[in-house]
Specification:
By secondary structure, the chain is α/β, with parallel strands linked by helices. It has helices at 5-18, 36-42, 69-75, 85-91, 95-107, 120-124, 128-139, 145-148, 169-187, 189-194, 208-212, 229-239; strands at residues 27-31, 48-52, 79-82, 111-116, 152-155, 196-199, 219-220. Strands 1-2-3-4-5-6-7 form a seven-stranded parallel β-sheet.
Amino acid sequence: MNMTATQTKKFAEELRKNMPRAKWCETLICVPACNLSVALKAFKDLRISVGAENVHDAPQGAYTGEISAEMLTDLGVKYVIVGHSERRQYFGETDAMVNRKVHAVLSAGMNPIICVGESLKQREAELTEDWISLQVKAAFHGVTPERVRRCIVAYEPLWAIGTGRTAQPEQAQAVCCHIRAVLRGLYGARVARSVTIQYGGSMNPGNAAELLSQPDIDGGLIGGASLQPDQFLAIIHAANQN
């Protein structure tokens, strides 16, 4: 819940000054629903896709204040964050709700960014892999192999979100590797390799390059660092690795 429509437009203007001309990594910015129209126009010529931060699983109905997948696709949105830790923590989203949202997003022709992650207590109790397995299997329940290829999984350890703490590269790699192993068990190696897996725990210009160099970390789900154009651009540079 950051930036007004006016601030979003100004943010795009700042990015435009220093955005590389060459084709770099795929870049996506997810904004609040009220900023989507402005963002779609502002980022159009910057090779930046626009996504939504949330969606309701129902196609329509008496859900005042919510936004449906069809509403998003009609605007031109291609990506939606599903099951972010803050949605789970503050708004009570369950694994079953996340699964329904995944199906709604895929049925609308969009791409879900499915968030999973463990708490500090779960990590200290050595439950990380069990918890992540449960979340991944629940989120992908009923999703066909053809549709899995359109999914992105973001590993966001709850203990490293908004705290300034970051998982060590080997810790993040271990969990992302486990996520791919779970997908491999569900869909086979070829499909598992096609899924983009991101790390989303306080990634910043100082640690992005090392995190993104890990074999199973294909990208980053950037939080606070994405609000400053210079920091966001530095992470984009870090992601452009051979």
